[in-house]
């Protein structure tokens, strides 16, 4: 009895691996290393489940409303899950904050992270990135009447960002004359901006746009519109899971071709009137 | 220990602890003064003062410190316009001191009130019999004796205050907890070293302080 | 001194006038201060109906606040049970006759009392997974950190309580042939627990409040869901924080009231110990 069960389990496993390998073949990339079964491709096809780390407090990108999440990142997450053969019902959304995305991936708390996650060299040491699926840039959110037109005018001004985030670090290193106020969430920064205690909020432009278009703040703020950095948003997976990373890039390519990428944008951030960006598939990471 | 041989990291660590020490020092003074005042209010003959003291204790003792410090920034500073310094960091520091003092004073007040209860009723009765007023009875007879009895609990409260100073990090001050977070973020491989250095520093400072208060409490204890 | 009234004489005519003047002056100052706060909040538009309206909708409560409160209470309840057990265990350990039990127990208790809870939580959440190679759920990170800290404080409270039990109690117990464990478990700890009830309850209130730090490691509790997420949806962080503070106060006041009722009941049934020595009654306090 025991032996048969073991054999059955073994059989199931080989089958799962075979399916995984086929999935790779279909999309025409070399995913031989995916056969280890530990990557997301293997996991998704064997238990039809995927845990995705997302932001919960960023309007337009990743916003938790009750038990459901909405936003552009969420739609991208759904596209990836679908491409991996996981139904929407098999997705577990998990709230992450900027500071815990790498640990979450490394420790396996989540399978992938789609959470306004900028690809950079420091992070590449710890995790692997699929994408980028969007190119953001650091920008400033200021009151409508503000005279600030760019980062060069920040000297002596109070700028707010989230503690430990890339935008906060850039202000600290590149714009030392600015006074940096750090909070643990952007909603606090935006509240401080509304209260007049900070002169600007800085982070990626689409995050700022999401806040500026909130009902409460309609007409009060503007995004300066002069991005002073390039923030390619990637999809984080485990460092060693290059097969999963390749698969994600294939899914993104397919999504750009069949219009589901554009639909994801139009359903979320596109509502603010901004046209869908072109997904430049030539810039996708090489997953090494 | 490689993490701390880097001068930038070392600076982050030292700056973090200096903020904690400064926060603790200022907030200790404010909290003790405020706590004694509140305790005096709570035992005073004027009902409004008693009510105010009771309300203070019940509100602030039951609210998380995170929220109190949040209100110091968004309530006092952002909405009410109470500015304590023009420098952003110093302003946050003083808002933090204020939040810590408001919170800790509630505990100091209760410690002193229970200290007052350890003074035998005969002491106050004798004071009144020789014609002392409420203020004289309290400040010359009762509080000095109660003060001796509350050294130990006061010590615990002040040690807790020092640890709670880490929560001021939520309004952006780069104190120890933020410093530790930053170091862990950039040196994920040395999590243990970083934690034990930070935690160890607190332990090295606070455990002897605790024993110091215990020793002092024993020496000052009123022998009855 | 049992009643505060012993501090002052029954007021005569002059004292009555003086008290009345003080009442009026202080009362007016207080009303003035409250009005000023109200007025400034009004000027900044913080009483605007649109900011408060979300709290009149049931979905705000069922989507955010109640699940958040549930998270808070769940973490608090588990941590309460565990820290009481931890407290008793380590109090007994520190009171042991064997040095090899006493000294390690002492080191553990002293160390965890001295480390800020926030650092502890960070470490358990981000550090422990490196050893176990398993992800640490935010709930358990919060629970373990709370247990280690509050358990250590409770251990000291129990120890002080045992010291406060009149020595005749244990002598009598030994005299009727009870063993060490029986004396501790049946005579000393129950009396210590009753004598220390106020301290224990205050510490449990501290524990409930400290669950609030859980939001920093993204545990879904009252601050995370009820303040950060509500504010991300409706842009009303100050109002959300006020509601959250009111809930915390209500929960903790209830806890204190229940404990007061419990202590009055034990006193009436004559189970409470006779007056412990007054000096030792103060040997332990809650550590906020």
Automatic annotation (TrEMBL), chain A:
Assigned protein family: Belongs to the bacterial solute-binding protein 3 family.
Plastid listed as a keyword: no
Annotated CDD domains: PBP2_GluB
Pfam families cross-referenced by the UniProt entry: SBP_bac_3
Domain Solute-binding protein family 3/N-terminal: 49-272
UniProt signal peptide: 1-20
Assigned keywords, A-Z: Signal, Transport
The protein's name: Glutamate-binding protein
Keyword Signal tagged: yes
InterPro entries attached to this UniProt entry: Bact_solute-bind_prot3, Solute-binding_3/MltF_N
TrEMBL record, chain B:
Transmembrane segments: 12-38, 59-80, 92-112, 194-217
Membrane topology note: Multi-pass membrane protein
Primary localisation category: membrane
Highest taxon of the lineage: Bacteria
Keywords: Amino-acid transport, Cell membrane, Membrane, Transmembrane, Transmembrane helix, Transport
Domain ABC transmembrane type-1: 17-208
A Pfam family hit: BPD_transp_1
Subcellular location per the Swiss-Prot or TrEMBL entry: Cell membrane
InterPro entries: AA_ABC_transptr_permease_3TM, ArtM/GltK/GlnP/TcyL/YhdX-like, MetI-like, MetI-like_sf
Family the UniProt entry places it in: Belongs to the binding-protein-dependent transport system permease family. HisMQ subfamily.
Cross-referenced NCBIfam families: HEQRo_perm_3TM
Protein name as annotated: Glutamate ABC transporter permease
Phylogenetic classification of the source organism: Bacteria, Bacillati, Actinomycetota, Actinomycetes, Micromonosporales
TrEMBL record, chain C:
Source taxonomy: Bacteria, Bacillati, Actinomycetota, Actinomycetes, Micromonosporales
Residue stretches of biased makeup (Low complexity): 272-288
Keyword set includes Transmembrane helix: yes
Membrane-topology annotation of the record: Multi-pass membrane protein
Keywords: Cell membrane, Membrane, Transmembrane, Transmembrane helix, Transport
UniProt-recorded name of the protein: Glutamate ABC transporter permease
Repeat keyword on record: no
Region annotation (Disordered) ranges: 269-288
């Amino acid at each position: 009895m025991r032996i048969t069960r073991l054999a059955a389990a073994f059989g199931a496993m080989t089958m799962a691996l075979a399916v995984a390998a086929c999935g790779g073949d279909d999309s025409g990339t070399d995913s031989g290393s995916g056969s280890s079964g530990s990557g997301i491709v293997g996991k998704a096809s064997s238990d039809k489940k995927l845990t995705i780390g997302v932001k919960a407090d960023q309007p337009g990108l990743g916003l938790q409303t009750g038990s459901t999440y909405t936003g552009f990142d969420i739609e991208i997450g759904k596209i990836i899950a679908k491409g991996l053969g996981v139904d929407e019902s098999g997705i577990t959304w998990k709230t992450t904050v900027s500071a815990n995305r790498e640990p979450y991936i490394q420790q396996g708390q989540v399978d992938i992270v789609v959470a306004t996650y900028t690809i950079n060299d420091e992070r590449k040491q710890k995790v692997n990135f699929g994408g980028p699926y969007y190119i953001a840039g650091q920008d400033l959110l200021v009151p409508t009447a503000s005279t600030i037109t760019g980062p060069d005018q920040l000297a002596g001004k109070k700028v707010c960002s989230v503690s430990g985030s890339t935008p906060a670090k850039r202000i600290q290193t590149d714009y030392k004359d600015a006074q940096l106020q750090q909070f643990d969430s952007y909603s606090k920064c935006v509240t401080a901006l509304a209260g007049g205690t900070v002169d600007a909020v800085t982070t990626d432009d689409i995050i700022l746009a999401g806040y500026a278009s909130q009902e409460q703040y309609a007409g009060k703020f503007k995004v300066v519109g002069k991005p002073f950095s390039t923030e390619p948003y990637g999809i984080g997976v485990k460092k060693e899971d290059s097969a999963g990373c390749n698969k994600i890039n294939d899914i993104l390519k397919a999504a750009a071709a069949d219009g589901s990428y554009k639909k994801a944008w139009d359903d979320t951030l596109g509502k603010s009137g901004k046209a869908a960006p072109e997904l430049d598939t030539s810039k996708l990471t090489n997953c090494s | 220990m490689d993490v701390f041989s880097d001068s930038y990291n070392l600076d982050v660590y030292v700056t973090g602890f200096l903020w904690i020490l400064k926060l603790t020092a200022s907030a200790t003074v404010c909290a003790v003064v405020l706590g004694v005042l509140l305790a005096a209010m709570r035992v005073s003959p004027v009902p409004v003062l008693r009510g105010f003291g009771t309300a203070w204790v019940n509100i602030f003792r039951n609210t998380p410190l995170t929220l109190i410090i949040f209100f110091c920034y968004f309530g006092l500073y952002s909405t009410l316009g109470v500015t304590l310094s023009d420098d952003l960091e110093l302003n946050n520091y003083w808002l933090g001191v204020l939040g810590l003092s408001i919170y800790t004073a509630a505990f100091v007040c209760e410690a002193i009130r229970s200290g007052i209860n350890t003074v035998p009723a005969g002491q106050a009765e004798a004071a009144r019999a020789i014609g002392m007023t409420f203020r004289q009875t309290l400040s010359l007879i009762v509080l000095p004796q109660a003060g001796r009895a509350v050294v130990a609990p006061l010590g615990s409260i002040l040690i807790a205050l020092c640890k709670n100073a880490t929560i001021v990090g939520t309004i952006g001050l780069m104190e120890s907890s933020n410093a530790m977070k930053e170091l862990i973020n950039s040196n994920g491989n040395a999590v243990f070293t970083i934690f034990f250095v930070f935690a160890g520093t607190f332990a090295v400072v606070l455990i002897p302080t605790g024993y110091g208060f215990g020793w002092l409490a024993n020496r000052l204890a009123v022998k009855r | 001194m049992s009643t505060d009234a012993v501090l002052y004489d029954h007021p005569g005519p002059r004292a009555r006038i003086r008290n009345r003047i003080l009442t009026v002056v202080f009362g007016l100052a207080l009303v003035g201060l409250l009005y000023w706060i109200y007025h400034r909040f009004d000027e900044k538009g913080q009483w605007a109906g649109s900011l408060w309206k979300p709290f009149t909708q049931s979905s705000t409560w069922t989507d955010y606040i109640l699940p958040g409160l549930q998270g808070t209470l769940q973490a608090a309840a588990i941590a309460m049970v565990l820290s009481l057990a931890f407290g008793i265990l380590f109090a007994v350990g520190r009171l042991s006759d064997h040095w090899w039990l006493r000294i390690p127990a002492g080191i553990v208790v002293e160390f965890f009392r001295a480390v800020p809870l926030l650092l502890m939580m960070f470490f358990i959440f981000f550090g422990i997974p490196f050893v176990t190679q398993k992800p640490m759920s935010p709930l358990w990170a919060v629970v373990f950190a709370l247990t280690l800290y509050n358990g250590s404080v409770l251990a000291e409270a129990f120890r002080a309580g045992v010291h406060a039990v009149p020595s005749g109690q244990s002598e009598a117990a030994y005299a009727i042939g009870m063993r060490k464990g029986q004396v501790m478990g049946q005579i000393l700890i129950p009396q210590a627990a009753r004598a220390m009830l106020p301290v224990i309850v205050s510490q449990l209130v501290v524990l409930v409040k400290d669950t609030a730090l859980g939001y920093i490691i993204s545990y879904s509790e009252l601050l995370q869901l009820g303040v950060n997420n509500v504010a991300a949806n409706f842009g009303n962080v100050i109002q959300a924080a006020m509601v959250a503070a009111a809930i915390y106060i209500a929960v903790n006041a209830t806890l204190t009231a229940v404990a007061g009722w419990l202590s009055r009941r034990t006193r009436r049934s004559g189970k409470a110990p006779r007056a412990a020595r007054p000096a030792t009654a103060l040997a332990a306090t809650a550590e906020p």
